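Re: How this chain folds, sequence and tokenised backbone to follow

Filed under: protein folding, tokenised backbone structure, sequence and structure records.

Contents: The amino acid chain and a row of whole-number tokens, matched residue for residue.

Body of memo: The sequence and its backbone structure tokens, given next.
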Amino acid sequence: MKIQIKRICIYPKDIERITGKSYRQSTRMLQAVRKSLSKLENELVTIEEFCQYAGLKIEQVEPLIFG
């Protein structure tokens, strides 16, 4: 049985897949999420935090990230 590894952080490439925006726009969006959550530049943003910020359901986003 193969164990499926899931990660909890989100990257600009994932946001690019979800939204259809360019990589640079996805980076800006990730920066906006960090700023709204008062996170430092080196702190990661979770998929759940991104979904809350973007108003998306995590059930819709997971298949786009994990395939």
Summary: DSSP finds four helices and no strands in the chain.
